[in-house]
Specification:
The protein is mainly alpha-helical. It is built from 24 helices and seven strands.
C-alpha cells in the first residue's frame, strides 16, 4: 500500500475508479476501514461517486453504504438511478432500508420503492411509518416465526430449503405465533435439535414470552435490555401481533444518534447532520436559519439598554456588571434546560407536569440566586466602596437567576407540548428572556437609586 493511499485515500480511489477495473476497486475498498471509506468517498467528485457505484455489484455497494453515516449514504443513494438504488437497498437489512429511504426526499424514495420487489417495498413502507426513535423505527423485519401447530420436522425442512436467505438473518430465537399472527411463545435454536420430529412447537415453546410494543421509546428499550440480558426482543402491535425484532446493538446505535441530534440542535445545526462535503449554499442556509433568529432576539434584548441609556451614562460602572448578570443567569437557566431535556428523554417527567418542575427549580433558583447575588454584590462593594451599587447588582442577579432556572426548567416541557423541538428552541428563547430581564432589573433598580450611584 502506497503512502498516497494511506494519507490521501481519495486520490488513490479516484485513480482506481478511473481505471474502470471492478476487481481492483473492490480489492482497494477492502483495504480501507469504515472511517477511511467514508472519508475517501466524501472527498470524491459527484461524477466519481456515481462511477464508483456503477462499477460495484449491488452486494458490495451495500457494504460500502453500511460503512458511511446514514446522511452520507442517503445523499449517495438519492442521486443514483432508481433501479440501481433499489438493487443496492434490496441488499440492506430492513431497518437500514427504512432509515435511508426516510432520509431521502419523498419523490426519490417513492421512485426507488417502485423499483424494489413488492414484498421488500411493502416491508420498508411499514417500517417507515414508525417514528425513528421507537421500537418500531429500529426493529428489523428479518426474523423466523412459525405457527404453533407446526412440527419440528416442518421447521427444519423450511430452514434447509431457505438456508441461503435465512443465513443473512440475525437468528438467535424462533418465535411462535397463533393463527392470527399473535405472539404466543419462543424457542431457542438449539431447542429444535433434540425433540422428536413429530412434536409440535406449541408443546416445546416457552409460553408468555417477553415482548415490547412498537411505540416503546429508546429509553424503554435501554431499560429492558439492562434488566433482561437477551439477544433480541420481539416487537408487537397493540394486539400482540408480531412485527419485528429489536437487537441490543441497534438500541445502542439509536441512543447515540438521538444524543447526536440533540447536540446538533442545541449547537444551532438545524436540518440534521452537516458535513463540509455538502453544498456551500445548503450549509450556509441551514446555519443562517438559526443565526438570523438569534440576531433578531439579541437586538430585542439590547433594546432594553437603549431605554435606560441615561441611567447607564450616569452610572457607567453598571456596564461592567450587565454582561456578568446576563451570563450567570444564562448559565443557571441552561442547567435547568439540560435537566428537563434529560428527564424528558428518560421519561421521568411529562410535558403536563409544569407546576411540579417550576416548583422544584424555583426553590433551587432562590438558594443559588441568593448565593450568587451576595458574591457579585460583595465584589461591587469592594470595587467601588458603594453599598447601593452592590445591592442593585446583587438583587438583580438573585431575581434573574430565580427567573432563569424557572423558565429553563419550564421551556422544554412547554415546547414539547406544542410539538416543537425543545433542544432547538429552548436556548435562544431562554437567552433572550434572561438578557432582557437581567438588563431591565439592573437598570430599573439603578434608576430608582440613581442619586446614590452617581
Amino acid at each position: 500500500m502506497t503512502l498516497r493511499s494511506v494519507d490521501r485515500p481519495w486520490e488513490a480511489l479516484h485513480d482506481v475508479i478511473a481505471s474502470n477495473n471492478m476487481a481492483a476497486l473492490q480489492a482497494f475498498l477492502e483495504t480501507l476501514g469504515p472511517t477511511e471509506t467514508a472519508r475517501a468517498i466524501s472527498r470524491l467528485s459527484q461524477e466519481d461517486q456515481n462511477q464508483l457505484f456503477a462499477l460495484l455489484t449491488p452486494a458490495v455497494a451495500a457494504e460500502v453504504i453500511e460503512d458511511v453515516s446514514e446522511k452520507q449514504a442517503a445523499d449517495l443513494i438519492e442521486v443514483l438511478p432508481p433501479k440501481q438504488a433499489a438493487a443496492i437497498i434490496d441488499e440492506l437489512q430492513s431497518d437500514l432500508q427504512a432509515d435511508l429511504l426516510g432520509e431521502i426526499c419523498s419523490e426519490s424514495a417513492e421512485a426507488i420503492l417502485d423499483e424494489m420487489s413488492p414484498e421488500e417495498a411493502e416491508e420498508a413502507r411499514e417500517l417507515m411509518a414508525f417514528p425513528p426513535d421507537t421500537a418500531g423505527g429500529i426493529m428489523i423485519a428479518e426474523f423466523l416465526a412459525f405457527r404453533e401447530d407446526r412440527t419440528i420436522q416442518y421447521v427444519l425442512d423450511r430452514l434447509q430449503r431457505n438456508r441461503e436467505t435465512y443465513a443473512r438473518y440475525h437468528v438467535q430465537y424462533l418465535y411462535v405465533r397463533d393463527g392470527q399472527g399473535r405472539l404466543t411463545g419462543v424457542l431457542r435454536m438449539h431447542d429444535l435439535l433434540f425433540p422428536e420430529r413429530t412434536r409440535r412447537l406449541k408443546e416445546l415453546m416457552i409460553p408468555n414470552p417477553l415482548y415490547i410494543e412498537a411505540t416503546a421509546s429508546i429509553q424503554d428499550l435501554q431499560a429492558f435490555f439492562d434488566e433482561h440480558k437477551l439477544f433480541g426482543v420481539p416487537v408487537v402491535d397493540s394486539e400482540t401481533r408480531m412485527l419485528g425484532v429489536v437487537l441490543p446493538h441497534d438500541v445502542e446505535e439509536a441512543a447515540l444518534k438521538q444524543a447526536d441530534r440533540q447536540f446538533l440542535g442545541t449547537s444551532g445545526i438545524v436540518g440534521g447532520e452537516e458535513f463540509r462535503s455538502m453544498p456551500l449554499a445548503l450549509r450556509s442556509r441551514r446555519r443562517l436559519s438559526w443565526l438570523s433568529i438569534n440576531i433578531v432576539l439579541n437586538i430585542i434584548a439590547a433594546s432594553v439598554i437603549a431605554l435606560y441609556q441615561d441611567t447607564l451614562a450616569a452610572a457607567i460602572a453598571l456596564a461592567v456588571f450587565l454582561p456578568i448578570i446576563s451570563d450567570m443567569s444564562g448559565c443557571s437557566g441552561n442547567q435547568a434546560v439540560a435537566v428537563s431535556m434529560r428527564e424528558l428523554t428518560l421519561g421521568l417527567v411529562r410535558p403536563n407536569e409544569m407546576l411540579r418542575v417550576v416548583g422544584k427549580e424555583a426553590s433551587l433558583g432562590l438558594i443559588n440566586g441568593l448565593v450568587l447575588g451576595i458574591l457579585l454584590g460583595g465584589a461591587a462593594l469592594l470595587w467601588k466602596q458603594n453599598p447601593v451599587l452592590g445591592l442593585v447588582v446583587g438583587v438583580a442577579l438573585m431575581l434573574n437567576t430565580l427567573l432563569a432556572v424557572s423558565l429553563g426548567g419550564l421551556l422544554p416541557l412547554a415546547l414539547k407540548r406544542l410539538k416543537l423541538d425543545p433542544a432547538l428552541v429552548s436556548g435562544p428563547i431562554l437567552t433572550t428572556v434572561t438578557d432582557m430581564c437581567g438588563f431591565f432589573l439592573v437598570l430599573s433598580f439603578a434608576t430608582m437609586a440613581l442619586p446614590r450611584l452617581s
